[in-house]
Amino acid sequence: MTVLKDILARHPGDRETLLALISFSRDAGDFPTALEYAERLANVRPGDPDVNALIENLRRQNKAPDAR
Fold first, then answer.
1. Which DSSP state fits 66?
2. How far apart are CA 56 and CA 53, in angstroms?
3. What's the confidence (pLDDT) of residue 62?
4. Three-state SS across 10-51?
5. With a cut of 50, which residues of the chain have pLDDT below it?
6. Which of 7, 39, 59, 60 has a CA between 20 and 30 Å from the CA of residue 50?
7. Three-class SS of residue 68?
8. Which H/E stretch holds residue 62?
9. Rounded Cα distance, 19 and 41, in Å
């Protein structure tokens, strides 16, 4: 995660880095952080239906009773 965050600091719009951070955060159960990265990705790819669906999915997971 540290390496990915360093890459993102140098290249804030890098799609692949944002996707990796979303995946790692989501897999760790950190849905709020995954959602933050997904929203950043939406700024890079506005109107992308896949990104919009990802955000909606993360919002649902973030509201789930067992979410952190």
1. T
2. 5
3. 87
4. HCCCCHHHHHHHHHHHHHCCCHHHHHHHHHHHHHHCCCCHHH
5. none
6. 7
7. coil
8. helix 49-63
9. 8
Alpha carbon 19 to its chain's center: 6
Distance CA 58, CA 12 (A): 21
Residue appearing with tokens 């649902």: 60
Residue 19 φ then ψ, to 5°:
-60, -40
| Structure confidence at residue 64 (pLDDT) | 76
Tokens, residue 25: 């955060």
Q: Which residues contact 6 (CB under 8 A, 6 or more apart)?
A: none
Cα separation, 32 vs 25, in Å, equals: 8
